Amino acid sequence: MSKFGVLVMGPAGAGKSTFCTALIQHLQNNKRPCYYVNLDPAAEEFAFEPDIDIKDLISLEDVMEEMSLGPNGGLIYCFEFLLENLDFLTDPLEEVTDEYLIIFDMPGQIELYTHVPILPNLVKHLMRGSLNINMCAAYLLESTFIIDRPKFFAGTLSAMSAMLMLEMPHVNILSKMDLVKGRVAKRDLKRFLNPDADLVDEDPSWRPGKDQEELEEGRTDGDPASTKNVMAGTSFYRLNKAVAQLIDDFSMVSFLKLDAQDEDSVGAVLSYIDDAIQYHEAQEPKEPRDDIDTNIIESAMGD
Ligand SMILES: Nc1nc2c(ncn2[C@@H]2O[C@H](COP(=O)(O)OP(=O)(O)O)[C@@H](O)[C@H]2O)c(=O)[nH]1
Ligand SMILES: [Mg+2]
């Protein structure tokens, strides 16, 4: 029997927990069972009480105090501790059946996705160990990043880095779409959904100065470390262009749009996740429910 899960990731404040809540609500509305796992040891309040909460294993506050660590170091410690105590996850998850969608709500520290091999090890355990969960990663990036193009490409690079590191089915999501509604033309938005490196050149906030012209004409060596180039913004521009080109060349990242307040939008994102984990293929045809069916038959006969 397979199990099914989604790992909700992304930078702090990207809307991960809000998306988890909207997803649980949507699943409940559609009579689908779900199992909520909170892996953010700093999360305090929940709209739906988690079935597993990492805080029952280890508290970030205690770690920071006892080990004299900051919030980021403390979080890494919590995850290392979780990896040494995987039964905390394995035991309850073994009981979860294939009808359930297991939702993992992750912390936002970017180090976790890009710097250390903790998450790949955790994912390996969940996907390839005895649990054998069909998993999909959902990486959220705030849509307001598209207003600041260098920020958007930096965020996209972190999404790509997570994709390369985790080697699992992946959907990338631009969250909080309600906040950019009416601020970006549809045609432009399309170019963010499939990131296009030319967006860096067309950035309205980037004004190439004399130095950039000299560089393009080959009149300066374009040393990115020279004070002149740094101060003129030329070095920053070239860095962004290189990052954007790298993302464009890999052609791996594209985004789905999400407005967590809009149930259709949540449903659309869920259908991509379902496809990625092949949820529906594994479901047994269900016995028709008596209460619903009788009503339909009775009303049909009444007509
Ligand atoms: N306008 C808007 N705000 C949102 C949306 N999703 C989340 N937020 C807000 O963004 C903030 C961070 O959300 P949260 O889900 O806690 O982010 P997390 O740190 O990624 O778990 C909260 O104040 C949310 O109310 C959304 O779709 N639209
Ligand atoms: Mg959260």
UniProtKB/TrEMBL annotation:
Xref: Pfam families: ATP_bind_1
Region (Disordered): 200-227, 282-303
Biased composition (Basic and acidic residues): 204-222, 282-292
Positions in coiled-coil regions: none
Keyword Zinc on entry: no
Signal peptide extent: none
InterPro entries: Gpn, Gpn3, P-loop_NTPase
Keywords carried by this UniProt record: GTP-binding, Hydrolase, Nucleotide-binding
UniProt-recorded Gene Ontology molecular function terms: GTP binding; GTPase activity
Quaternary structure annotation from Swiss-Prot or TrEMBL: Binds to RNA polymerase II (RNAPII).
Similarity comment text for this entry: Belongs to the GPN-loop GTPase family.
Function text: Small GTPase required for proper nuclear import of RNA polymerase II and III (RNAPII and RNAPIII). May act at an RNAP assembly step prior to nuclear import.
Protein name (record): GPN-loop GTPase 3
Organism annotation: Westerdykella ornata
Taxonomic lineage of the native organism: Eukaryota, Fungi, Dikarya, Ascomycota, Pezizomycotina
